[in-house]
């Protein structure tokens, strides 16, 4: 994974930087993501379906971003992003799952990730294009509790390098724009794909955004595996200075 991160960083530097910001720019956003889970989790040879077996429903979702852009052509811009989703449910297991008793179960699945993205602006006019590298500190935790109070935990923790690409198209003199961004990596059987598309309205310092986001994750951590997809609409509000 370290060699992959170094190769991705070298590729990013080879492409940079064509354009730099004219002035300093600082911004932050807060958003709500109505994400639904699908997929499965496994521990050893035992597997559970998140929808059919656990009947998970959304409890809370938080999305925060902050970024800093500058006119220095050699140095990359910086973006921080935090995502946390939490879902719980009451389901039914037809067979044992790593020594749990078949029958009614309670479960809770939490996904948390913190991104540090270094990126360059390749275009900066009515068409905006950014390219960079994201380092993602990721953790996933699934806890299942049976009727006897015994619990089983499936965990995944990793620091992953991902390629970052963002594009936005501004409609001149309207404050309206459409765009999307993506983070992605696939290496040694593990993969992460995270993308969103959105429409945005900007009024003075205020940015209002609505769109759709999807994360697909397939990651092994020893005997623990999370093969899940989160998807759904989101809304956010931010300030840009």
Automatic annotation (TrEMBL):
Residues 1-21 form the signal peptide. Keywords: Signal. InterPro entries: OMP_w_GlyGly (IPR026387). NCBIfam families: OMP_w_GlyGly. This is TIGR04219 family outer membrane beta-barrel protein. It comes from Marinobacter halophilus.
